[in-house]
Amino acid sequence: MINQLQEKYQLSLLLLLGSVATLGILPFVVIRYLAGNTLASMLDMMLILGISALVAYAYRFKKIRIVSAIIALFINAGLLVVVIANGVDSFFWIYPVFASTFILVKPIEALSINIIASIVLMAFSDVFNSISLISYIVTIVMLSMSTFVYASHSEKQFRLLEALNTIDPLTGALNRRALNSDIKIALASAEHNGTEQFLAILDLDYFKAVNDTYGHAVGDQVLQDFVTITTTNIRKYDRLYRLGGEEFVLLVSTAKEQQQAFIDNLRTTIKKELKTPDGKEVTVSLGVASWASGTTVDTWLKRADDALYLAKSEGRDRVTYCDK
């Protein structure tokens, strides 16, 4: 799933970084130009324009991950060029640039970039004729490791937040918030790329009787077993969501001629494997609606729900399709 929260967060970091870079570097463009150092002034200006252009591209086309990686490589390469060209005057830009790299890419990627940039700097720059190489190595190692630990911790916290935001705590299926986000993305993909998709609403038959007969703890276990069986028998890029109670939504991308076989096999597998404690079958009814041009979130769910209603009214433990 494309996570909109993460996308917005990363985009806000890019915008902040672009603003800080512009405000931080622009004075040096003026200072170095007035001092007659035209080359250094031009290099600094190229950094500003390059970062600004990449941030604008990310904002316009939402290519956050790719642009972040490009910016990380761009600012590190720019740093090396500037330090090698200017020497000690630009040396201390190393620290904010290395720290910023951890904002842009994954911690292990940022650490790798820092190591490579440091090696290149030691090999091609003459700044260590004036600055202690040992002091540089110690400070860079301390900076890189501390930012690596912080970035790794932040990444874990974000994953936890993502799970809390999108996962149903009882069953482990995706929740309705995730469905609302993913179904819009699925519709956009279908409209623009012609991707063949279908949406199915699954309802466990006579689930109230399971709760009444065996208790809610067993009912909860049946729901969890249902999710385990279903997710085991769908593909990794298909998605199962808990709509509420014993109702679930399945979002699948597959060719239309394969949809019926896919759903029939799934229903049969659930019937075979989903049991109460005393071995009785728990069946499901399914209402399926294929994507059609002009479909909206509400109409897609309504068509599937109408098909589910027919499946239940016709005796349950069956699949009904709505192709209107």
Automatic annotation (TrEMBL):
Q: Which cofactor does it need?
A: Mg(2+)
Q: InterPro entries this protein is in?
A: Diguanylate_Cyclase, GGDEF_dom, Nucleotide_cyclase, Rev_trsase/Diguanyl_cyclase
**Statement: the UniProt record of this protein carries the keyword GTP-binding:** no
Question: Any stretches that span the bilayer, and where are they?
Answer: 12-34, 40-59, 66-87, 93-121, 133-151
Query: Superkingdom of this entry's organism?
Result: Bacteria
Record GO terms (molecular function)? diguanylate cyclase activity
Q: Report the PROSITE patterns cross-referenced here.
A: GGDEF (PS50887)
Q: Which Pfam families match?
A: GGDEF (PF00990)
Q: What is its EC number?
A: 2.7.7.65
SMART domains registered for this protein in UniProt: GGDEF (SM00267)
The record, for Gene3D superfamilies, names: 3.30.70.270
What reaction does this catalyse? 2 GTP = 3',3'-c-di-GMP + 2 diphosphate
Keywords on record: Membrane, Transmembrane, Transmembrane helix
GGDEF domain: from which residue to which, for each copy? Answer: 195-324
Protein name as it appears in the record: diguanylate cyclase
